Amino acid sequence: MDNRALASGIAVITLVVAFWLWSAPVTQAQAISQSHPEQVKGTRVSMTKPVGFTEAGNFSGFLDRVTGASIMVMEIPGPFQSVTAGYTAPLMKAKGMNLISRTDTKVGSYPGIFVEATQKVYGDTYHKWALSFGDKSMTVMVTANCPESKWASLSGPLKASIATARLETQTKPRDLRADLTYALPDSAELKLAERMQNTLLFTVEGKFGTEAAKKGALFVVGQSVSEAPVNDPAEYSRQRLRKTEQVKDVKIESDEAVTVSGLPGREIVAIALDSKLGTPMFLYQTMLFGDRTYYILQGHVDLTQRQTFEPVFKKMTQTFQQK
To answer: Which residues are CB-contacts of 170 (< 8 A; sequence separation ≥ 6)?
Structure first.
């Protein structure tokens, strides 16, 4: 799977996960906290959060539990131009989103894009601001999400807040495993390559790029960003697998109950087609369900390498630990 295509898909995934016209005139001083900018956990990004927002527990960003509004910050190991290519009305509409505005901007020395959009989620409308900026090697995405009923009062503060986002390039390298609610060690075959939000990505060489992608397998583990309960874990797991980006024609071979780290879950083995290349793929997925949260572990590899990596994916899943 080409990681440039994957990065483009990640941009769309972020928009879908993060969605949770007018606003009263506000100044930036009114909109955001008087405190100094703070570094967002799990990232190299610093920003000033709005008044009433606190650090989120399940993702890198901030949350207002009273209104349900949130700000999510993600560093993506993909070129800015490729990742933001999906910010067009037709492509966003195909994902159930309505693009209201798109404006080019600058964030420090980086080119950026400011987007306003809406989406209906389970019958409710959510509004968002999204600021993306980066270069040829990486993209930062800061997404503010707000229920429609609170948009009039929070649109201005949310926009002003995410406009303060900056990439702190002088800070020490990120500890990719810091501040997570779970642990997953490297295996002999797969090494930690990158982190996006609360999701870890493992590859054969421990690198996330086109050349590494040609080496084969990708294993991903992450935690849900919402706290909504899952009423039917088996059906939800099947739906989640079928919605995997860059694959189509998913055919499930087995679907079994499992327990990992004391958490009940579902393990699914399937085959599919790469939606871009049309080549057969092997898919492995385990979803583990906790109290108002879940974890997802997915392995992707060309079908010709199934015999090698199916046991690797299964063994790696068994090393997962909830903290």
So the answer is: none
Q: What is d(CA 158, CA 64) in angstroms, rounded to the nearest whole number?
A: 11
Q: In whole angstroms, what is the distance from residue 116 CA to residue 139 CA?
A: 18
> Is the pLDDT at 248 greater than 80, yes or no?
yes
SS3 at position 37: coil
Using one digit for the tens of pLDDT, what is the confidence trace for 70-108?
Answer: 999 988 888 999 889 989 999 888 888 899 999 999 999
Q: Is the dihedral of CA 241, 243, 248, 251 positive or negative?
A: positive
CA angle 243, 247, 248 (to 5 degrees): 85
Contact 278, 248 (CB under 8 A): no
Domains of the chain, each with CATH number or no CATH: 3-167 (3.40.1000.10), 182-322 (3.40.1000.10)
